[in-house]
Fold this sequence. Notes:
Mean pLDDT: 87
Strand order of the largest sheet: 1-2-6-5-4-3-7-8-9
Largest sheet: 9 strands, mixed
Number of helices: 16
Radius of gyration: 23 Å
Helix content: 25-40%
Strand content: 5-15%
Distance between the termini: 53 Å
Number of strands: 14
Structural class: alpha/beta
Shape: globular
Order of helices and strands: HHHHHEHEEHEHEHEHEHEHEHEEHEHHEE
Amino acid sequence: MLKYWLWLTTRKGLGARSAWLVAKHFPTAEAAYFAGAEEYASIEGLQNAAPLLDKDLSKPERILRQCYETGVSILTLQDAAYPQRLKATDDPPLVLYYRGTLPDLSGPVVAVVGTRRASVYGMTQARRMGYGLARCGCTVVTGGAKGIDTEAIKGALTGGGPVAVVLGSGVDVVYPAQNRNLFRDVEQNGCLISEYPPGTEPRAGNFPVRNRILSGLSLGVLVVEAPEKSGALITANRALEQGRDVFTLPANVDVESGSGNLRLLRDGAIPVRDAWDLLQEYAAQYPETLRRQNCGSFRGGDYVPDPEPSREILPKKDIDKPKPKAYIDLNEKLESLSRDEQCLAGLLRDGPMHIDAIVERAQMSAGRALASLTLLEVKGIVRRPSARMYELAEK
């Protein structure tokens, strides 16, 4: 029942990581609620079980009433609609509150992040990228802060959405206040999401924790503009830990707000110029969803389409058909592989596969799967045809 999930996530002194350990240990949240001190003591990694001895259900019941009265929906980790990409991370939130219509988060999703104190250049690029990603068939995920987040939301809504905005407060708390009307538009074309119950005020400590949801929902994270010390770089780091791609735009070297972009580029982030430059990484994985569009540009806040390129008719050329690939005989290698390596290599018998699909089908955490895939690469059994795709190596 929902109230037991809410009980587990509202125990004072029990952090998100500890709540996750409890949820993994018991078959249901109800079983966790009715367990005793001896059972709690047996949970591996749990440092402090004292909060679990508080069986008061008044707060969970109050939250349920608030959700009903304010039109807030609840997803738990065991619900079929819970985003599977997020569920496969090492520390997913046990409960998600949302208001609006939950978009399809199993398809191409990209998080757009950046500084609150953005330059004019940064805000223009955020709106342009948000618009282009939406136009090309991608769901945009971002925070609700002013600056880059706000402009990315505006661009994505102009491009036709949908948008998912992950908050560091309750979904019924408007922060910043000037985004009240914008959030209403988001609810009509996507949703507001939070792991915090209704009524939770924005606190500084909530936002770094929230960032793992932004990256966890996404195939990749785009840092539009960020200084050296920025929450956007925290999101980028979480993305790397979760096995996600990190993209960044070329920064304006004359402004401090872009210094983090330069650092990301030095550290190996993927540079992009426009939305399709980013999305072509996933075009083969989502051929029916992603499509290249004329995304134009924003000038003075208005959308201006690019001129159509002239079409020159060229004579047809005979093109040799590519020879089919001959992959290695996996049966000869199986005995030398670990159980995880055997599982992952076996999945790739069906053909090239994106890391997210591998993680979902193997039911492994992203970190564990990536570690085994790296070993398979070293052994010459697996190769990467592109950044996030894997296939069996050729003979």
